[in-house]
Design goal:
The chain has a domain of 120 residues. It contains six helices and no strands. With 178 residues, it is mainly alpha-helical. α5 runs antiparallel to α6.
């Protein structure tokens, strides 16, 4: 299967992709991107909004991760929910989409690494996700990993769409896409 995927990617890169396949990908990609960005946007707005009114308990959740100095917990507990809401709104409105998706992926990677660190150290703590008391564990890691892969996949789909648009623009004489 890997060989088939590499073959498809190579033929696309060389401009030899089956025109029908390329047309299907081009017509499906915007819908896939919209679905993922709306899903991630709603989740981020919900997660951030649920923490905005619980800054002190969220700061305590952050401190329990034992990753950073205690003084930083309150700063992060104040800033992170606003960042999540802002990213979510960018995704929902399709504003600054590539930076928003990239930042979302980096944020989710940080969350994932923090959760893995907690499990590796044998700590039993609340995730702090969505303002709930759900524990850091296998399910939180699966959820965060799924969201991370969704954000990365959406970045890839967006780059595909942007490449298709760029290739469809009329080019000045003597300019080639590489």
């Amino acid at each position: 299967m890997t060989t088939a995927i590499q073959s498809i990617n190579q033929s696309i890169d060389q401009g030899q992709a089956d025109p029908t396949r390329r047309a299907i990908l081009s017509s499906v990609a915007p819908g896939v991107l919209a679905g993922i960005r709306i899903l991630l946007g709603v989740i981020l707005v919900w997660a951030g909004a649920s923490k905005l009114l619980q800054t002190s308990s969220f700061a305590a959740d952050i401190a329990r991760y034992q990753i950073m100095p205690d003084g930083l917990s309150i700063v992060i507990a104040s800033a992170l929910p606003m960042m999540e809401v802002g990213l979510g709104l960018c995704l929902l409105s399709a504003t600054c989409l590539l930076p928003a998706l990239t930042t979302t992926a980096v944020l989710l990677l940080a969350f994932l690494l923090a959760q893995i660190s907690v499990m590796a150290r044998g700590l039993t703590i609340s995730c702090g996700c969505f303002g709930s008391d759900s524990p850091v564990g296998t399910m939180s890691i699966i959820r965060t990993t799924s969201l991370l892969f969704s954000a990365l996949f959406a970045c890839g789909v967006l780059l595909f769409i942007l490449r298709q648009r760029r290739e469809s623009l009329p080019q000045p004489i003597g300019v080639r896409h590489e």
